[in-house]
Amino acid sequence: MRREPNVSRVPVSVRRVPGTFYILIIMISLASITIPGFGTVSNLLNILLQGSFLAIVACGATLAIISSGIDLSVGTVLSLSGVVTGLALHAGIPIALAILSGVLTGLICGIITGSLVAFVGLEPFIATFGMMSMAQGLGLVLSNGASIPGFQESFRWFGEGVVWKVPVPLIIALVIVACIWWLLRHTRLGLYIYAIGGSEEVAGWSGIEVGRCKLALYSISGCLAGIAGVLLAARMNSGHPTVGVGWEMDAIASVVIGGTPLTGGRGGVIGTMVGVAIVSVLRNILNMLRLSSPWQITLIGAIVVIAIGLDILLRRWRLALEG
Amino acid sequence: MMARKFFVAAVIVVSLIAIFLSGSSILAGKQYEIAFIVKSLTNPFWIDMKAGAESAAKDLNVKLQTMAPVKADNVEEQIRMIEDLIQRKIDAIVLAPADTKGIIPGIEKANQAGVPVVIVNTKAAGGKIVSFVGAENFDAATMIAERVVEKLNGKGKVVILEGVPAAQTAIDRKNGFLSVLKKYSGIEILASQTANFQRAEGMMVMENLLQRFPHIDAVLCANDEMALGALEAIDAAGRLKEMIVTGFDANRDAVVAVRDGRLFLTCDQNSAAQGSEGVRAAVRYLNGESVPARIVTKVILVDKTNVDSYLKKYGIK
Amino acid sequence: MYQRSQQIQTLTHNEISKGVATEVFGGSGSRFLLLVGLIVVLSFIAPNFLSLNNFINVFRQASLLLIMSIGMTLVILTGRGGIDLSIGSVLALSSCMAASALKAGLPVTVSIIIGLSIGALCGLVNGALVTMVGLPAFIATFGMMQIARGAVLLYMKGAIIYGFSPAFRFIGAGHLFGLPMPVIVAGVLFAVFTFVLYRTPFGKEVYAIGANRIAAELSGVRVNRVLLTVYTISGAMAACAGLVYISRLNAAESVIGQLFELQAIAATVIGGTSFRGGEGGLIGTIAGALIITFLNNGMNLLGISSLWQLFVLGSVIVSGVTFDMYFWHRSR
Fold it and tell me: CB of B69 within 8 Å of any CB in chain A?
């Protein structure tokens, strides 16, 4: 007889908002005082639009990291599904099916990495590293190493359109974030993901089917990368085989800035959104100041270290004060 | 809790003010503000172009800021830059697109916001632009390939080292080589492999290819960096006499290699002129003058016969 | 000192002896089978693969990866998310600084010392951020990756330093006893660190920390000091690889070393060292580094289109390790 999972309450982190949230607030208020054109509604929408793609990808990365895994493949899977969607559209396939093919591409990649992690027992790093190379290679082969441009207006709406002045990708991102939040907080799967991240062995002993949960979460992550890829192709009016290079790092950095530790078991998607916001606002500020790329590279590193370092030091300091 | 917030605030305020001070000098004065977006700032080719653009900006008394994607050759980042600069109400953008077709949405956004765009170096396939300044990579690559075929008397075994897969420059240069080489039946293309525009990879790939092929007549490289790496590998294998190697971009080291007879030729697209002409075109447009839709900069093949002027340019004796 | 190491020995004796035994006879043993399999397959399908020259060529290319992977293996062995993402950037920064020291006319030895100390310093900062501030290693080394890269880009301004003295070029391009110098450098470093890892108290402490940090701390291991040392070694190894690299290339530029961290991590993990910490070791890493290099070499020899190469690399790594897992699981 199969034992029923005996997990009633998972010790989810109590801090709903990570300390880095205050840093975000300060960044925004300072920038709106000092940079003309920053604190406008149109720039706010601009940042939100730019951040929505990363937000979607980072949701998947959050799931993987909470389970104390990692997903390095999101960036290249995103590129691949953009290429697949582009090819489908050029082949004259109806828009709905073309979008579906892009999302399915992501899902299939996710299922493959998920099975490698869950059933073969590969380290998530190796499985997703392999998928990262494979998806990149496949994207290059399918596109023949060039971008696939020029889609019909109705498809471009998904990347460019607005509903009551709100960009479509932002709406989709918000819906996805809400779904993932609900999944983590209010479903068994969410609970199990935290439990696996806390201790895989204990989770297994208490009857959780660890393998199936892992398969599910990597599939979700792949599927989200697929969605982001389709939307990005619509926004750029082209599927480009290397557009997602480095997105995995941005996604992982956003998750960690948002307070989810790489050791897993804690954190959540709200924190990740703070991380995404910090990364996007920082990029926007650096572009508005028109700093050259070496400075941008340096400052991104410095600010990430300072922000998280301060957060940790101050927490430790407060604990010491409280005895 | 309160103290903690204050402390965070204080430190972040100080660090951010430092950043803003470095950038806020832009606020002063009523000059034209022009942004120059290139594909990367880690290669002598773009550094030269930046220098050319900056000297033109100085002449014309405009504020110029050169930017490049953090991830080299990333068109999505270039689009984000354009969007952010529009919010900043920039006067004009001079742009070297990382992807001919992928950049179109960015140019369209600038069009909507009424920001004029001048394209340099690589064509854009759509959107309204003031002018295209530059020499096509494709055309320059065909010139190189023609010279190689001529040198080989239309017969020989050729290796191509390509740039970063899917980068526009790499695609154009490779296709330029192929368009010529394919025309001659005596030319056999042994391999066409990527070395990602980098010297170290050029050396590694060439080492492997030298193992594979006992005889090679010519190595066509899509930039000087890979050519110089390949030369190191060929030199180490003692096979420099056997083959000719060509570069692309005429950077400093490549010119020296041409002088020493190691590199057969390289190609000067005059990137500095592309930069300065781009900025001049933007300023003329802003002043309401007419600007031709196409400004051609010359392509010069650099070999033993004309290398001296380049040695002088770089101050090498 | 004696007492402390005695304690660790009793505490972790079982784990360590199990670890070493598994590594040699189990885990990485089968990784070597994987390597041999790859070589056999390539020698059948790839032209000119099976020659002494090509093998020396591959070993020379693998030596850089191996040098970097030594530091990476130590870091990953300490567990709890231990990782060093900064090695590619640190490699670029330290080697460019050494190159400009050489160009300024400083003696070769001094320039080498400058390069190595910059690398070690970067590693030390990583270690300090991890141990004293308590940053996750991923964040600390991600920050260092960005800062070191930005610093070297700003310092070099896109320029390239070209043409070194023969004395310096010897490190990367010279030969000793018929072997290329990079192979000798990598071999010596590998031998030294294999001894350190498997035969000294420090090595045992690294394993102990990775296996169970709290237990290690309770039994008297000075965890922070070991971690500081490990990250410093990783930085110094990156610098060392960088010096060999620029010497071989006869040029130093700011963009070298990009994505090297992923390659080093891949070599380490393919070699059987686990992110869980305390499992695996340097013997597997050498197999991992050779597998990756042989794959790249084979693809060049086979003339596989550059578009396909990434796909082949990824699928061979995944299927190889998958096969290995099954092989290993069955034989257990």
Answer: yes
pLDDT reported for residue B14: 66
Q: Cβ contact (<8 Å) for A304 and C142?
A: yes
Which of A214, A245, A276, A278 lies closest to A58 in space, CA to CA? A276
Within chain C, where are the H helices? Answer: 2-21, 28-45, 52-77, 87-103, 108-128, 137-156, 166-173, 181-199, 201-211, 213-218, 223-249, 260-270, 282-302, 306-331
Determine contact: A127 vs chain C, CB below 8 A.
yes
| A36, B24, B28 from A33: Cα distances, Å | 8, 12, 16
Looking at residue C131, what is its pLDDT?
A: 92
- Do B169 and B309 belong to one domain? yes
Q: Please report how many Cα atoms fall inside a 13 Å half-sphere around the Cα of residue A109, on the Cβ side.
A: 40
CA A313 to chain centre: 27
Would you say residue B295 lies in a domain?
no
The mean pLDDT of B98-115, rounded to a whole number, is 89
Least CB–CB distance from B68: residue in A245, A292, A318: A292
Closest alpha carbon to B193 in C299, C256, C54, C263: C299
Tokens (6 digits) for B201:
């990879």
Tell me the per-residue pLDDT of A292-306, one tens digit each, with 9 for 90 and over.
777 878 888 888 788
Q: Are residues B148 and B244 in the same domain?
A: yes
CA distances for A173 relative to A68, A110, A238, C264, angstroms: 24, 19, 20, 35
pLDDT of residue B6 exceeding 70: no
Flag whether residue B178 sits within 8 Å of chain C, measured between CB atoms: no
Contacts of A318 in chain B (CB under 8 A): 1, 4
Number of Cα atoms under 13 Å in the Cβ half of residue B296 = 6
Region of C190 (left: φ > 0; alpha: ψ -120 to 50; beta: rest) is alpha
Q: Is residue B57 part of a domain?
A: yes
Chain C touched by A116 (CB under 8 Å)? yes
Q: What is the mean pLDDT of chain C?
A: 84
Domains of chain A: 20-317 (1.10.3470)
In DSSP terms, A167 is beta-bridged to A162
Residue B70 host element (H or E): none
Whether B176 has a pLDDT exceeding 90, the answer reads: yes
CB pairs under 8 A between B and C: 82
- SS3 category, B161: strand
Average pLDDT over residues C185-213: 92
Compare all CA atoms of chain B with the CA of C301 and give the residue at the minimum distance. Answer: B212
CATH of the domain at B79: 3.40.50.2300
* CATH class entry, domain C19-331: mainly alpha
Looking at the fold, whether B191 and B279 belong to one and the same domain comes out as no
Claim to verify: residue B120 and residue B80 sit in the same structural domain: yes
- Domain match, B152 and B252 both: yes
The helix/strand/coil state of B260 is coil
**Residue in C with minimal Cα distance to B233:** C249
Candidate from B44, B200, B256 with C-beta closest to C158: B44
Per-residue pLDDT band for B12 (boundaries 50, 70, 90) equals: low
The pLDDT of C145-160, averaged and rounded, is 87
Taking contacts as CB-CB distances below 8 angstroms, the residues of chain C near A140 are 307-308, 310-311
Are both B125 and B179 inside the same structural domain?
no
Helices (H), B102-136: 104-113
pLDDT at B11: 64
Residue B158's region, left for phi above 0, alpha for psi from -120 to 50, else beta, is beta
Which residues of chain A are modeled with pLDDT < 70? 1-17, 323
Domain that holds residue B86: 29-134+271-286
- Model-level ipTM above the cut of 0.85: no
Query: Domain for residue B122, yes or no?
Result: yes
Question: Looking at the domain assignment, is residue B201 inside a domain?
Answer: yes
Closest CA to C110 of C122, C120, C97, C123: C97
User: What pLDDT, on the 0 to 100 scale, is given for residue C330?
Assistant: 45
